[in-house]
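General statements about sequence and structure are easier to judge against a single worked case. For one protein, we set the task of working out the structure tokens from the amino acid sequence alone. This step matters because it turns folding into a mapping between discrete strings. The amino acid sequence and the backbone structure tokens for this protein are reproduced below.
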Amino acid sequence: MPVGGLKAGAVVDFSGETTLREPDGPRGQYKHGFRVLNDSAAEWQNFYSMQFEVNLPDASEVELMATILCAERSVDVSETPSSGTVRVSGQGWHMITLPWSAFDFEQANFGFLKYVKEFKVAAKSVDGKAAKLQLRNARVVKAPVVSLAAEIRGKSAAQNGSVEYAVTVGNCTGVEQSVALSFVKYGWEEMTAGVEPGSLQLAPGESRSVKVRVKISNRVPSGGHETQVLQAIANGDAANASQLNFITTSRVPNPFILHNAARWLEVRDRIAKYRGRRKRRMSSSRRRRIGRFQKSSTQPKRPTTLTVRMCSRRRRRTT
């Protein structure tokens, strides 16, 4: 996807810094139900990296700093830009690929990529002076070479049944790619996975759909699941292969809720039975306590040592 409305192949000459800004839409920031949208910003959350080309006039080393700035979402809070720095050298055109991990924001906090407003590129030489460069083909891509995407990546079916997934394979480069599709084998798989077609020839920027089918063996118990890993290798470059995971489950027969109507009646009966037992235990223990009290109250009290001494003194006085 192009950045800032810059057309493919268009060259931007700049010295020191250049800014690509998303055009303003008619509404700006607005709410759509519970979601906050902005038609004046670009959404980059579902992409992998920023990519652009720079042309160096000579062989000297140049430092490039790319900065992402999102649109203001609140009047009281200013947005913090995120930057990533790389160095290049050598005369001519260079392809720069900056995944989001190359930027200095917390990778778990990537929500701001939904509202990108500006993208800046600053260039300076080793001695700190502004460098004169050319920039072209600034865009965001979904993968380094080939992208794999599927709206649904988890399904279930009965034993001996099968499920099917729709997958989109895209060429994220500017050259033609010959793509081979296969599955990564972990070991001890009981489900059989296949993809049709197993190979594609994609033009630059082209996307095509394939079908992934998974057959569930009768050896997989109800509720058991396996993960299928689809990989795409473009032009023999397995080091940059893309992968996509699917989770397929052996369906549990209905009803699979533990506490259905009959089970809840059993729980109620057990509660009533437990309460009855508790009442009987409490009543029996209470009777035992009452019995011990009554027995102790009927027995004559033994005289204390003080009482015996006082009685003996009185006897001596009278005698």
Q: What stands out?
A: The radius of gyration is 38 Å. The helical segments are 261-298, 305-318. The first strand starts at residue 11 and ends at 15. The chain has three domains: 11-141, 146-250, 261-314.
